[in-house]
Amino acid sequence: MRHSLYFCEKWFGPKKYAPNVWTEDQARAAHVGQQTYSVLVGSLERPHCVILVMANAVAADFLDEQLRPYLSYQHQVVSPGMVFLSMAVHREFNGEAVAKASRYTFDQRGTLEIRREVLFPTREMEIARSQIDVSSNFTPFPEFGGYELFMRAERQLN
What we know:
The protein is mainly beta.
């Protein structure tokens, strides 16, 4: 499936817009120069996914109808050309405020920490740790325009 891609310096989440829209050539130059840029997937005004490409990381936020990031993935560069999915966060909202969040933190040795927080109406927290196979958390750093893996909201979180 082909998605419409738009580029900008950075998506401004609090105001829900892209202040500096870029051409594909500007974004390609940033990618080659290992400079930070954002990819808006689907629409410039109402993207369903925002990918932040940095020299040392790739992050993806999946947005709901109100443009709130309900799901986030963070990948850290672990070797030249290779990233590791180090964190996933799922959020539920009460208005604009986060009411519940589950954060999955992975390390390369296979430790998974799950932190579940209820923030509204009262604050509660639960933490669990386990050892898992994280081999599927490693993936190549994206080539310019090759963001398909990072646009997938549904993933196997070992």
